[in-house]
UniProtKB/TrEMBL annotation:
PANTHER family: RHODANESE-LIKE DOMAIN-CONTAINING PROTEIN 4, CHLOROPLASTIC. Residues 23-138 form the Rhodanese domain. Gene3D superfamilies: Rhodanese-like domain (3.40.250.10). It comes from the Bacteria. This is Rhodanese domain-containing protein. InterPro entries: Rhodanese-like_dom, Rhodanese-like_dom_sf, STR4-like. Pfam families: Rhodanese.
Length: 139
């Protein structure tokens, strides 16, 4: 197995991601944006599904590493009863940081890792969570 194969991350658009979250109550959505980003433009909400969105900030400064991120997130996942086969969906503003976060977790043995392509805000070629009219919360 190559290093790339051990870091498998699938992509789903926002609507597909929300459908997966509806169909799989064990699935976890992880928002990797900074708190100020979530408070400025809002955040995805799973309140209608009766569960939280997890928050773990992807490192963007030298004092925080991907390992710090993964350790923090794994503590949250353990508290939610997740195991290494639990679907993990990652979201950021546009899909880049969430992909990196997913690759990190995949390399640590998480087997069902999904990037929400287009993120919360979207980008020119793909619509984001908010633009699709999916549930959001203002923090």
């Amino acid at each position: 197995m190559t290093v790339r194969e051990s870091m498998r991350v699938d992509d789903l658009n926002s609507k597909e991601a929300y459908q997966l979250l509806q169909d799989h109550p064990e699935a976890q959505l992880v928002d990797v944006r900074r708190p100020d980003e979530r408070s400025d433009i809002g955040a995805p909400s799973l309140e209608a599904l009766g569960r939280p969105v997890l928050h773990a900030v992807w490192p963007q400064t030298p004092d925080r590493t991907p390992e710090d991120f993964a350790n923090e997130l794994e503590s949250q996942l353990q508290a939610q009863g997740a195991d290494r086969d639990t679907p993990l969906l990652f979201i950021c503003r546009s899909g880049a940081r969430s992909r990196a976060a997913g690759e990190t977790m995949s390399s640590r043995g998480w087997t069902r890792v999904i990037n929400v392509a287009g993120g919360f805000s979207g980008k020119p070629e793909i619509t984001g969570w908010a633009d699709e009219g999916l549930p959001i919360s203002k923090i």
